Amino acid sequence: MTGRLDGKVAMITGAGSGIGRAAAELFAAEGAAVAVLDLDGSAAEETVGKIEAEGGTALALAANVALAADVESAVARAARDLGRLDVLYNNAGVNSAGSVADATENDWDRCFAVNAKGTFLCSRAAVPYLEQGEGGAIVNQGSVAGLVAVPNFAAYCAAKGAVVALTRSMAIDLAGRRIRVNAICPGTIFTPLMEPMLRARGDGDLDAGLAKTVVKYPIGRLGTPAEIAHVALFLASDDASFLTGSIVTADGGMTAQ
Ligand code: 1HS
Fold first, then answer.
1. Does 194 contact ligand 1 (Cβ within 6 A)?
2. How many helices (H) and strands (E) does the chain have?
3. 3-state secondary structure 69-132
4. Which residues is 59 bridged to in the sheet?
5. Which DSSP helix (H) or strand (E) runs through 247?
6. Are 34 and 60 in contact (CB under 8 A)?
């Protein structure tokens, strides 16, 4: 059986859980060797264990995407140990809490450091590898929060808006180097990242928070990590060879209203 990423090497950040883990498993099942990067090294190892149990190839890397030195050594190690780098999925992200009236400066800085600067640093480190051979693909994790307002989520909305703008900027700057750059804007996916926000929305009650959130989605439910992983697979693969600078919503109709 042939896979859509046969012979390719992909690095996925934040791949120790949630959407990143789902994408790592899917990309590996589609033939890629996967560099599984996460701040939590043991979570990255766990993802690698799942991939290897299915006969895939993967490498665990512990790194903080907000630190240039961490990122540069992780990208270089992935390219060296796995032989090349064709795909970068900038998935790592953190949440924020509060409106602009009550968000903390620390929360703002952390949100921008991981979600926005992390995307820049990982992409900058990967470009010299991605531009080799037939060229490469970068997939950035945006969010519906980068397109429309989400209450009490100011820093996150702003940082994801930056990711959307950066995606367009990168797409035109890197087109001549044969690197395609696209973003996915997911609606709420029920992952560990989202639990605190959902709990806060339900005044401490997760189920109440979930109920308040689901009503925003015409499709009548939240998304799954696998559903976003499939969008990432498409954007990473040669099936998307004419897509660059595209902002792909995957939100059950949330932003269509
Ligand atoms: C956190 C993720 O990127 C989704 S933000 C959307 C939150 S909501 O509209 O479902 O409340």
1. yes
2. 9, 7
3. HHHHHHHHHHHHHHCCCCEEEECCCCCCCECCCCCCHHHHHHHHHHHHHHHHHHHHHHHHHHCC
4. 35
5. strand 247-250
6. no
Residue by residue, pLDDT tens for the chain (257 residues) are 689 999 999 999 999 999 999 999 999 999 999 999 999 999 999 999 999 999 999 999 999 999 999 999 999 999 999 999 999 999 999 999 999 999 999 999 999 999 999 999 999 999 999 999 888 999 999 999 999 999 999 999 999 999 999 999 999 999 999 999 999 999 999 887 788 889 989 999 999 999 999 999 999 999 999 999 999 999 999 999 999 999 999 999 999 99
- As given in the structure block, the two tokens for residue 132 are 């080799």
Pocket flag, ligand 1, residue 187 (CB < 6 Å): yes
Q: What structural domains and CATH numbers belong to the chain?
A: 9-187+224-249 (3.40.50.720), 190-222 (no CATH)
Q: Which residue's C-alpha comes closest to atom 11 of ligand 1?
A: 213
CB 86 within 8 A of CB 111: no
Residue 194 CA: nearest ligand 1 atom is 1
Distance 59 CA to ligand 1 centre (A): 30
pTM, to two decimals: 0.97
Contacts of 221 (CB under 8 A, 6+ apart): 214, 252
CA of 7 to the centre of ligand 1 (A): 35
The single residue listed with the structure tokens 């600078």 is 245
Residues 180 and 231: their CA atoms lie apart, in Å, by 15
